[in-house]
Amino acid sequence: xxxxxxxxxxxxSFTSHxxxxxxxxxxxxxAFLAGLxxxxxxxxxxxxxxxxxxxxxNLRRVLPLPLLGDIPSSKEVGKIQDLGEDRSDVAESFRLxxxxxxxxxxxxxxxxxxxxxxxxxxxxGKSFVACNLxxxxxxxxxxxxxxxxxxxxxxxxxxxxxKAKTGLTNYITDANLKISDITTTMKGLENLDVITSGSTPxxxxxxxxxxxxxxxxxxxxxxxxxxxxxxxPVSLVADTLLLSNYADLCAYVIRFNYSDKRMLDIPKxxxxxxxxxxxxxxxxxxxxxxxxxxxxxxxxxxxxxTKKKRKSLFSRN
Length: 317
Hints:
Mean pLDDT is 83; it is low at 292-312. Helix 3 packs across helix 4 (126-139). Helix content is 32%, strand content 15%. The chain has helices at residues 24-49, 56-62, 89-104, 126-139, 156-159, 168-173, 204-208, 211-223, 239-242, 265-272; strands at residues 67-72, 113-119, 144-148, 183-186, 189-195, 226-230, 249-255, 279-286. The protein has an 8-stranded mixed β-sheet with strand order 1-8-7-2-6-3-5-4. By secondary structure, it is of the alpha/beta class. It has 10 helices and 8 strands.
């Protein structure tokens, strides 16, 4: 107690009521920036990982093709039925498709029009579009021939439940066969004739190079107003390109929420290289509740959007 301290008070201490750490302003700014950047980063990651086509505006920005039409998303998509008295969204979309076809084919001088329907890969709805388009045109009092020229994986015969054993492959290989021998007329649609693919050949590409194919189209153009060709996907085989010379219009089908946007370079390249003389975009399975920026959808008043009982096409004359 008697020892003198060696400590000396130089200045009295003082305190502040404001906390030194953490800094409120700095914390608020950091939280604001994090909340602003995190959704952007998550959206960028989601967009990078999502490889499907969803938006029509972006699709048309990538593919500078005229829009032939769009088929709305519906429970009926994928089903082939008579759309004659139907007023559903799908039926109306195909009627608009008929009108758009007349506009895109105005430059074609000859009366018979040949429409080739294809897609990038299987499952995008090209056979569904080809069948319903043929039915719609036949309902418009046009003489229509529907050709199942996907010789590797035919779908039209199963869609329409046709049990014809002879078809295109038999016609090409057998010179004695006539077009009438491989033609099926659908009951209730006398204006629609269906020619199936026939037996599956080992060399489809070689068959399509045959002179019999040229003669087939020459004869069909003399008898029909419209010839609808269902072809294989262009990304898998070369069969479709072999048929391009016969087509007045190529309807390229893209299916929303299914088609891969990384494969859009294929139709873009085909258009750039002019592999098809006339090429148009047809969008399938469009959900108007989720898609913005195009059209007003279907089902507008006067009973449109209501469904009537449909007649079955699955019988043969």
